[in-house]
Each structure stands twice: as structure tokens, then as C-alpha cells.
Design a protein that fits this description.
single chain; 16 helices; 2 strands
């Protein structure tokens, strides 16, 4: 039976309903509590340049590392049917390599580029290690990445000889905050660039289709000439690159590398962003935009709680309650119930209309 326009829209975008509903509820709640909560203003920063400020900018800016990690986590989840819990530690390793190279000379554009490439190479190598354990040895992703989760921050500590060196440079300040003359925070621009790169990758290659095929049925993928092991390995390597970018942003924000606190616990938020985005945590079909919206929903919730003067020690408890509700709303049981309700409300009406026309 041919679907109506509304039914077809619901079917094609039902995966995005949970993050969109979460963002909508947070938006309405904040506007009721404080009508000016999302107002955006222009102020001068320490260098005298006009920059955007406000809670909306804080949400978009503060979620940058989480959004980038959730993009990579989406690929690993879809291809391997599991999650990488070492992304925070891997970002710390990448950040440590980044700082190590920068400390080797006078910081300029070429040195920053070299440091970034070295950071990406290191993070992708460790990502390939995780991917090899999953692809070639058949270890469940969460168990395979538990190794790096446990020792990754120690490795980051060893890279700089047990120190937490600082790196001060106008270039790094521009990466972590604002480029002079551009009022939008640089991390937001980096997220946009990463999103464009992934969109181009999926548009001009069949990678997205291959990842979904491997996640749904590895046997069928092999029969169609797709290397399931290769696709899984590639997804972990791409996640490693995302970790490197997140690590560079985190280091540039602070102007130093602290292996113990850099993006601490962000792996849990990245997994939740993928789940809230409506992606199947068991692998298969995915929508990266859903994970991005999920990441922004998590950051919006965090900013909302801080704006309500909730103590930092209690924020995680409040977030847990809200996230449980969102995850339950996105569960297969609730989705099936919502689908049956939608079909009862709209499908029956169309059938009745068709019957009348036939009569």
C-alpha cells in the first residue's frame, strides 16, 4: 500500500524523532523558565574582537568534541555492533602527541600542521589496534577497547615524560576559541567541516552502504564481495581520526595537556548520543545526523542544569534520569507501540476512505 506524504515522512525520519523531541522539550522548558535563555549577543573578547556569546553558543561550542566523537562512534557501532569505550583515552594520547611535537620547536603554522598530522597518525594507529582485535580476533568491541580504556591515559602520561606541559600560541588560541575577525567559535567551524567531510565521503563512496550491510548481515556482505573485516577496521581507524581532532580541540582550549582530565568520561556521552540519535546499538542502519542531534541534546541538558544552579556533583544524577527516559522512549518496544498507534490513527482512515471510493 502506498504511504501518504505524512506517513512516508514519519517512516523515513522516525529515527530522528527522539533527539528532536528531546531538543524541543529542552527548548520549551528553558523558554518558559527564562525567555531570554537562547538569546545571542555580541561582545568583545580579550583581544577586542567582536564574538558571539550566549547559552546557545555555549551549547554549540561546548558540544564540539562530543559531536565529533559521536560521528566516529556511529560508524563503529553500525559496523561492529558494539561501542568503543576508549575514545576519551585515545583523545588524550592524540593530544599528548600533539603537544610533544609542538614542544619540539617554535610554534608556527607548519609546526602546528605537523603536530596535527602526527596526532592523527598516532590515534589512527591505536584505532587500528582496536579494530584488529575486533575484526581479526572476533573480540566484542567493548571488551577489546577496554584495554586502551584502562592504559590509554597512562600512555598519554608517558609520551610527555610524566609532565603536563603548557603550549601557548596565538594559533592554538584561535583553534580553541576564536579566529580573529570571525565571531563564531572555531570548534563549531571544525564540527561543520567534519560534517561536510563525512557527507562527501558518504555521497561519493559506498562506505555508508557497506557499513550498514556489514552491521546487518556479515555473511551477506561477504557474498556480495564486501570485506567485513576491512570495513570494521576502517570504521575504527576513522574513529581514531575523530579522537585526534577532539584531542586537538581540547588541548587548544586549555593550552596544555592533562592526561587525567582531558575529555574524561566523554566515551559514555558519545555512546548515549548514538543511542539517543535512534541508532541501533547492535549495528546496522544508522543516521549520523541523529547522533549529532543526540550530542547537542546532551550538552543542552548539561547547560540547562548548570543554569538552574544544580550543583556539579548532582548534574550526572539528573542527566541519568533524563537519559533513561529518552532511551526508553527510543526503545524498540516503545517504537513498535508508536508505529501501531500511528497505523491505527492514519492507516485505518486511509483504508476506510479507499473502501468508500471502491463502493
Amino acid at each position: 500500500m502506498k504511504r501518504s506524504g505524512a506517513s512516508r515522512f514519519f517512516y523515513n525520519n522516525s529515527q530522528l524523532l527522539i533527539p528532536l523531541i528531546a531538543i524541543l522539550l529542552l527548548t520549551v522548558f528553558n523558554l518558559i523558565r527564562d525567555p531570554g535563555f537562547f538569546s545571542v549577543g555580541i561582545a568583545a573578547n580579550n583581544n577586542g574582537d567582536p564574538v558571539l556569546q550566549g547559552n546557545l553558543i555555549s551549547i554549540l561550542n561546548g558540544a564540539s568534541e562530543l559531536v565529533i566523537l559521536s560521528m566516529g562512534m556511529t560508524l563503529v557501532t553500525a559496523a561492529a555492533g558494539g561501542q568503543d569505550i576508549s575514545v576519551g583515552a585515545l583523545a588524550a594520547i592524540g593530544g599528548s602527541v600533539f603537544v610533544k611535537v609542538l614542544k619540539g620547536g617554535s610554534i608556527n603554522g607548519l609546526l602546528v600542521l605537523a603536530a596535527f598530522l602526527a596526532c592523527c597518525a598516532a590515534a589512527m594507529v591505536f584505532g587500528a589496534l582496536n579494530g584488529s582485535l575486533v575484526s581479526f580476533f572476533g573480540i566484542q568491541p567493548m571488551i577489546a577497547t577496554l584495554i586502551l580504556f584502562t592504559c590509554g591515559r597512562s600512555i598519554a602520561y608517558w609520551i610527555n615524560g610524566g609532565a603536563t606541559p603548557t603550549v601557548a600560541s596565538p594559533i592554538l588560541n584561535a583553534i580553541g576559541s576564536f579566529i580573529p575577525g570571525i565571531p563564531v567559535p572555531t570548534p563549531i567551524l571544525i564540527v561543520i567541516a567534519a560534517g561536510i567531510l563525512f557527507a562527501l565521503l558518504f555521497r561519493f563512496t559506498a562506505l555508508g552502504l557497506y557499513i550498514q550491510t556489514v552491521g546487518i548481515n556479515q555473511g551477506a556482505a561477504r557474498l556480495n564481495g564486501i570485506s567485513a573485516k576491512g570495513i570494521k577496521l576502517l570504521s575504527f581507524i576513522l574513529l581514531g581520526a575523530c579522537c585526534a581532532v577532539a584531542g586537538v580541540i581540547g588541548v587548544s582550549r586549555l593550552g596544555l595537556i592533562n592526561h587525567e582530565t582531558l575529555l574524561i568520561n566523554i566515551e559514555m556521552d558519545a555512546i548515549l548520543a548514538v543511542a539517543i540519535g535512534g541508532n541501533n546499538l547492535g549495528g546496522g542502519r544508522f543516521k549520523m545526523i541523529g547522533s549529532v542531534l543526540g550530542a547537542y541534546a546532551i550538552q543542552a541538558l548539561t547547560i540547562t542544569l548548570y543554569a538552574m544552579k544544580v550543583p556539579s556533583t548532582d548534574v550526572k544524577a539528573y542527566k541519568a534520569v533524563v537519559i533513561i527516559i529518552l532511551v526508553i522512549m527510543g526503545s524498540p518496544v516503545v517504537k513498535d507501540a508508536a508505529g501501531r498507534l500511528w497505523k491505527r490513527l492514519f492507516g485505518t482512515r486511509r483504508t476506510g476512505t479507499a473502501g468508500k471510493e471502491a463502493a
